[in-house]
Amino acid sequence: MVTPRGPQRVELLAGSEPARTLDFPTPPDWMRDALCREYPHVTFFPDKGQAIKPALQVCAKCICMMDCRAWAIADPSLDHGVLGGMDVQARKAARKLAALRVASPSPAPSSHGDPRTSLLGDAG
Ligand code: SF4
User: Fold this and answer.
1) The domain containing residue 41 runs over which residues?
2) Is there a domain that residue 117 lies in?
3) Whose CA is nearest to atom 4 of ligand 1?
4) pLDDT tens, 60-82?
5) Quick check: CB of 58 below 6 Å from ligand 1?
6) How far is the CA of 85 from the centre of ligand 1 (A)?
């Protein structure tokens, strides 16, 4: 749950060079536990050719990874760096997949019992 705490700057991803401080009118509560804040030597916004594996390894241990991932996927303006254990390409792919799911929702289950049997025809 997001609790309004007034305008403030959050040093999420403080390990990026140069330090990346993001502005949030009301930072989500999960950002307080962002593990990247404890790894100032790890670059989350690498320059071209810089390794992203160290950042991905920090994300993999972060208790807010799923919140961070959902936040980063939902905001296309976050088009650089590692967030929520995903690089830019992975976030773009996740956004495309989400858009496809909205455009083509799964069909409702058959009203004739197990939907798998309807794929096999009427077994009688
Ligand atoms: S998932 Fe990664 S980028 Fe997101 S808060 Fe955690 S450590 Fe930081």
Assistant:
1) 8-106
2) no
3) 84
4) 999 999 999 999 999 898 888 99
5) yes
6) 7
